[in-house]
Amino acid sequence: MIQYPKNIVIRNIGTLYGLSQEPYSFKRGKALAVVQSASNQYLYIKDGKIAKFGNDDSCPIQDAKVIDAEGGIVMPTYIDTHTHIVFAASRDEEFVMRIEGASYEEIAKNGGGILNSAKKLRDTDQADLYASAKARLDQMVQMGTGAVEIKSGYGLSTESEIKMLEVIKELNLNTDVDIKATFLGAHAIPTPYKADRQQYISKIINEMLPHIAKHSLADYCDVFCDKGFYTVEETAQILTAAAEYGLKPKIHANELDVSGGVQVGIQHSALSVDHLECTTPEEWKALSESSTIPTLLPGTSFFLKIAYGEARQMIDYGLGLVLASDFNPGSTPAGSMHFIQSLGCIYMQMLPSETFNATTYNAAAAIEVEDTLGRIDIGMQANVQILKSVTNINQIPYYYGSNPTDVTILRGKIQ
Ligand code: NIG
Ligand code: FE
């Protein structure tokens, strides 16, 4: 394997995007479209951090490995704040069932969906789970992603939920990706508990949460608060218990219906409420008066052919947004944040500059990495991507379906 020197200088950068020298401030409303950039730049990476940048004609750096950006762009790596990339197997059979006319909810009701993934995961050992998740993560890194949130939720038993969280921990230890883990034991009600939901919820509260907290296996707690899954009251019960262990909420809300998930998330100071394919102006108002971050997942709308979140209206209302992939085997089997930007622009009328900030700068706050990631400034962790064939950020969503990332650098290391 080639050993690269620690220090790198990227030369011949046509435009360096995502500059930010001011203190961090989550971008809302009109500010979401503001992206600072500078042309004809060099970028110097020293000891894993951004050490210097400036006009390439007067680059003072000599003792470093040189990478030629060939006049393309350099920008921060993506921060994907909502994924389920630990899973045992594909659910392509359900994809075909949906083409033949079944709905996502019908499939779930008949024991498919999340329960199908849970069955497959129970019979898969930790090493195999790790290998497949690692392969997915590697592919995401090659498409410009540098930080991810990963959820459990295909275990649905104490043993299997812990197995998933252990895999996430291993990924965090063995890669240069910054990873946050979210406990999603309340993703579905396992079949044996259908008649006594409270018994499963008690298991989450009295068995899973204490173990997870004791072994520091999660940063956040999620609940799928939606029609046919968890009610608002059940969500509140689980979030209250999680808070006692210091786990902040990140909620699945309003994917299938206006579920009350936004309100219960805000009441429990959720870091973010995610999905939001269905929302009302009352919810926009409540979000604008809170610090909870609205996160839209347009990959799900695309793959399930359901409504897209009302991003344009929400931004015009004055909200700030985050976009994430939701990479999972049921509703979004894809992790390209370039494509997520295309969907944001084409189906939700977001500007490319808005999708840029929603996947970098703003996304940082949704997993609490805004002090080190998501923008270009001296002292920030050196997580950057080089897109040689692209000359401005409009071209990222424009060339949909491609991977314009040529080089991904994480913690100052070429991946
Ligand atoms: O975010 N909506 C809930 N959870 C996942 C999908 C789960 C699945 O179908 O496996 C999502 O879309
Ligand atoms: Fe999800």
Structure description:
It is a single chain. The chain is an alpha/beta fold. The chain has two domains: 7-76 and 375-414, Urease, subunit C, domain 1 (Roll); 78-366, TIM Barrel (Alpha-Beta Barrel), CATH 3.20.20. The protein has 15 helices and 16 strands. The strands form two sheets. Strands 1, 2, 3, 4, 5, 14, 15 and 16 form an eight-stranded mixed beta sheet that branches. It has an eight-stranded parallel beta sheet with strand order 6-7-8-9-10-11-12-13. Helix 5 (158-174) links the parallel strand 7 (145-151) and strand 8 (178-186). It starts with 7 loop residues before the first strand and ends with a strand. The mean pLDDT is 96. The chain binds N-(iminomethyl)-L-glutamic acid and fe (iii) ion. N-(iminomethyl)-L-glutamic acid binds next to helix 3. Residues 84, 113-114, 117, 224, 252, 255, 300, 326, 328-331 line the site of N-(iminomethyl)-L-glutamic acid.
